[in-house]
């Protein structure tokens, strides 16, 4: 159906798989930093790739595509239909590993035991499997090698639907018999579709051809890149940069601007289209006319280039979608301007026929597969759900690319072509014309009321920009409380090892003249799966530098004060980019420890951005722009974001020491040197602490060499280890926490010291103080508050329960969050609203608060459960009615703040609460939105 690419011919047969392993993979993997080699690690790796490419061109030819499918398994479109645990099962079976062996136990539990595997350095499944196989077959010295062609042929067989598990096992057995143990390790990584190049992917593409990266980002297809760009000296022609039917390309994307509604209206010269933002999957439908059958043929590509034709159907006779749109386009027989080729840009959704609603994005594949598996004679009307395509652009028609045509022209032609739209099956997106900021505001209020994802504002005069995100299309989504807004792409700068690794991530700052520095921003420890950990450690394994042995080059890498938390650092040019989501920005004391000056609160990893590197990660300038409008401490907001630690700032006037009236004489024999504020939920400045001490008989000094009278003692107080504090400790002085004096004042006496009252002290004092408490640090004599109890519990060693708890003890999981519980209401004088008591208890136990004010809550939780059956009631108000009224109230009454609608609480199903508990962190609410 498309202009077929011509396969380049090689002058020699393809080499064996061992050529890739020993001339490329192993050389890159064993190339490590060395103080004895002046050349940078990246330069040395670039030379390895350059030599490999030159040798291939000289000895083999200009067709490297077969090898590229093995070099870049993460970009190869093949699906091997084999999961991690299926592979483990096959290997245990093939090599007859006993079921009760230690190897079997390790392999069967490898994914759920990441923390233990990290401690034993067994985080690479391929390495783990190779070790098991090697122990049973030994070194493979004499074996027939396998060629790249044969290996690809076997892998292609594994992708076929008709290939049975028994056939897969035979294929694996053949491959295992033709590879040595080192080749085996790399083959298993290919099978598991891991990244093999360790962050050098783009370098390889550029070595092959200067325009290869550009074309890859346009089409995301290895065959197109390596078949179209065979000669380094011939640049990518302009024809290669335009749309072609049958060839995948990346569509235009909308940008999210940090502007007011009035500013957005001005951006489009007060003339723009407003469309709904859809919650589906972006799909490009390529349609062409088969000259023989005179029927349309289809290809379906996702925005990343994945071919879903097998799912939606290549013609009107097959698939989950194509059979249901016959007749919706111009009649080919009656219209002289027949459609011979066309590309439509739009979104696939799932429509629920019973509830007349669009379901969340996650239901799409399930609905498509369900429809695909059903018998052809099933009645379409019997389906609860159906695939629904909303078209919003026409980018190619009858051999002509419409990239340079204005959106207005494309949209008018689209309405003519889709002459017979089928409701809830295929339709052109509706839009309204806007001219001023209030039009955007009205559309946003309507989106909130109707539970839509948001709106897209488009310039009717704009061209279509392939693989571009620019301000001609602007997406505006409701800003949600307890969310940071747009996700941010951070680069890994360091690592803190532990039972669960935490990665120190940062931003790039441009210094001009192609010079950069990288600033730490956040510590990310949540959101990682075992596979994600494995991929990161595989990419960075040989690149980590022990910070105790070698400090990172400053100011190129600026970790800030948190450098003391870092065990290893990595050169950002060699590093991995993570997509991060957070609740908010923290500009408190904790944030100031990072080089960026602030940090992200409750941040977690959404995914690894394999398509990005140090040049395309988020910049400090990007972050500053976001911070201006997203700061969690905005005082202008009607609904301010909850702070990480709800501090009480003491605001009483500070009295001059000489005029302080005495309240007690508890500290009459003590001279205090206060070196820092008291930190925590209740904060006191140095001056406030000094006033308290003087009020209660103490004296203040600013000199550690103060003369002491008989019986007087000098006490140093600080909540922070600063340079000055360390200097005094090295002189032999002990330093105590200011909280100790508050406990003394509370009990009106000097109480025995506890371990948590000490900041820095010599071993002899620490040993004495330990005798004042039990083995967990709980005082024998002094009362304890909730904060101290929490600190004590952190130090109590974990024990393995015979019967594990239903969920972990996460006392502060919902701290600072307010919840409104939406539930069915019953119009009866004899009944009150009924809800699940368990849900309420869980929220409160884990630190959350309940509220009845939707404008003061962080989340609205929809609870459809009741404790009794009230079906006999005839005037029952459904949960849909309740949530509908809440949405209307939010849409109507939400205030405008700084030119945009204020933040709104997310409306989520109660399952979100229990997912947060399961993950031990506040997870993304997107997949739990209530859609009723």
TrEMBL record:
Cofactor: Mg(2+)
EC id: 6.5.1.1
Gene3D superfamilies the UniProt entry points to: BRCT domain, DNA ligase, ATP-dependent, N-terminal domain, DNA ligase/mRNA capping enzyme, Nucleic acid-binding proteins
Annotated catalysed reactions: ATP + (deoxyribonucleotide)n-3'-hydroxyl + 5'-phospho-(deoxyribonucleotide)m = (deoxyribonucleotide)n+m + AMP + diphosphate
Pfam families linked: BRCT_2 (PF16589), DNA_ligase_A_M (PF01068), DNA_ligase_A_N (PF04675)
NCBIfam families in the cross-refs: dnl1
UniProt GO BP: DNA biosynthetic process; DNA recombination; double-strand break repair via classical nonhomologous end joining; maintenance of rDNA; nucleotide-excision repair, DNA gap filling
Domain BRCT: from-to ranges: 662-758, 809-930
Family recorded in the similarity comment: Belongs to the ATP-dependent DNA ligase family.
GO cellular component: DNA ligase IV complex
Highest rank taxon of the organism: Eukaryota
Domain ATP-dependent DNA ligase family profile: from-to ranges: 380-509
Subcellular locations according to the entry: Nucleus
Keyword annotations from UniProtKB, A to Z: ATP-binding, DNA damage, DNA recombination, DNA repair, Ligase, Magnesium, Metal-binding, Nucleotide-binding, Nucleus, Repeat
Protein name per Swiss-Prot or TrEMBL: DNA ligase
GO molecular function: ATP binding; DNA binding; DNA ligase (ATP) activity; metal ion binding
InterPro entries, sorted: Adenylation_DNA_ligase_IV, BRCT_dom, BRCT_dom_sf, DNA_ligase_ATP-dep, DNA_ligase_ATP-dep_cent, DNA_ligase_ATP-dep_CS, DNA_ligase_ATP-dep_N, DNA_ligase_N_sf
